[in-house]
Design a protein that fits this description.
Layout (H helix, E strand, L loop, with lengths): L10 E7 L4 E9 L5 E2 L2 E4 L4 H17 L5 E8 L7 H15 L7 E2 L8 H11 L13 E3 L2 E3 L7 H17 L8 E4 L3 H12 L4 E6 L2 E4 L6 H11 L9 E3 L11 E4 L18 E4 L7 H9 L3 E3 L1 H4 L2 H10 L4 H26 L3 H13 L1
Parallel strand pairs: 3-5, 3-6, 4-5, 9-10, 9-13, 13-14, 14-15
Antiparallel strand pairs: 1-2, 2-5, 7-8, 10-11, 11-12
The structure holds nicotinamide-adenine-dinucleotide.
The site of nicotinamide-adenine-dinucleotide (NAD) has 21 residues, from helix 5 and strand 10.
Length: about 375
């Protein structure tokens, strides 16, 4: 069931192509601040309801990041495992053709589950406008070397999470050189958080992936960790570490926990096991708002997902405007620092959880 309210959704489009059997949806939630921004999810189970919920999240995320974008999302019903690359590209192409009346004027696409930079190349080519989507390959430029795609490999989300962490540590008055950090997940987001922390000489004592947690009291050597993950496929092969089950990442004796993998990591059942005093939500929805409120009462500060992990969407805006990767990273840093600072100050002043402060701020910006 889609909830219609005073924000949206403004438009819901369902499209089908007889030739490729492409069946997809576009939900444009709100365009008060600019064209709706949101990725294309390609899964067998995607529904218009799911897409509508994700589109609403994008409305808040873009407003929170103070970008001239509204919120939107798309879904294509397809089981990519049973498609050849050509079939997949043909479906993307047909989807892009079908969205032409609204894209890029009211909708700007991006990668999401099962879509990446090459799908964005196909989407932009079929649409005919370079601005129709972001997350395009770095060699897809308007002019040679000018206005090029900015794919996910630049690690903009992890870079933003790292800055959110540093601002929150400042708020707590901690010395960053003396704290212990655990990072849940060592994928695109988690590995870049680790990289930037390591470059600052900040200690990471634990990280995890789907195989387990690797805990190392004296901290990791980032380059070695990265190499092991690449070559051996898991962080638990790092020499000398204590290996624990994945769920134990939350009960380690650390000061900061960065979430960067699964939803509902912290839940009603395990919320009392959390030892960290600061949680930075790099992943989406690692806990419910009720759990966040519970942790707040226990004196644990949580920087919410749509504040901390907005680096990806800020990078999308930078690409849309034709920035290069260096200026994109500068923009991510500035926006994430300002927004985290604003949200934490407001939350402290009003004695509310940071998520509520962020929602209020985003709503003011939308309205
Ligand atoms: P990814 O697929 O690159 O990495 C996920 C990592 O989590 C992998 O290392 C995987 O092994 C690990 N993992 C899987 N199950 C785990 C478990 N039970 N415990 C610990 N680790 C586990 O994904 P990503 O792009 O890094 O995204 C991670 C989270 O961040 C997701 O919630 C995603 O929605 C969110 N996010 C990502 C971006 C982005 O730009 N990539 C932007 C905003 C939010």
């Amino acid at each position: 069931m889609i909830n219609f309210d005073d924000l949206g959704p403004e438009k819901i489009l369902e499209v089908y192509d007889q030739k490729t059997k492409m069946h997809g949806f576009l939900v444009i939630d709100n365009t008060k601040r600019g064209p709706g921004k949101g990725g294309i999810r390609m899964t067998p189970s995607v529904t218009v309801d799911e897409v509508a919920r994700l589109a609403r999240t994008m409305t808040f995320k873009c407003a929170m990041a103070d970008l001239p974008f509204g919120g939107a999302k798309s879904g294509i019903v397809a089981d990519v495992k049973n498609l050849t690359q050509k079939q997949k590209f043909d479906i993307i192409s047909a989807f892009s053709e079908a969205l032409k009346p609204l894209c890029p004027k009211m909708y700007v696409a991006a990668p999401d589950m099962n879509t990446a930079e090459e799908e964005m190349r196909v989407f932009a080519e079929a649409n005919g406008s370079w601005r129709s989507c972001t997350g395009k390959p770095a060699n897809m430029c308007v002019k040679p070397g000018k206005k090029c795609g900015i794919p996910h490999e630049y690690g903009s989300t992890g870079f933003g999470v790292y800055h959110a962490l540093k601002i929150a540590v400042q708020h707590l008055g901690w010395d960053i050189k003396k704290i212990k950090i655990a990072i849940e997940g060592f994928g695109n987001v988690g590995s870049f958080v680790a990289k930037y922390l390591a470059e600052d000489g900040i200690k990471i004592v634990a990280t995890s992936d789907s195989k387990g947690v690797c805990y190392l009291e004296n901290g990791f050597d980032f380059k070695k960790l990265e190499e092991i993950k690449k070559k051996l496929g898991t962080v638990i092969k790092y020499p000398g570490c204590k290996i624990l089950p994945t769920q134990d990442i939350i009960n380690l004796d650390v000061d900061v926990l960065v979430t960067a993998a699964i939803p509902d990591l912290i839940n009603e059942k395990n919320k009392d096991k959390v030892k960290a005093k600061l949680i930075i939500e790099g992943s989406n929805i690692p806990m419910t708002i009720e759990v966040e409120k519970y942790l707040h009462k226990k004196g644990i500060l949580v920087v919410p997902d749509f504040v901390a992990n907005a680096g990806g969407v800020i990078s999308s805006y930078a690409e849309y405007k034709g920035y290069n990767p260096k200026s994109m990273l500068r923009l991510v840093e500035r926006k994430i620092k300002n927004n985290t600072d604003l949200v934490l100050k407001e939350a402290k002043k009003k004695n509310i959880i940071p998520r509520e402060a962020a929602m209020n701020l985003a709503l003011r910006r939308i309205k």
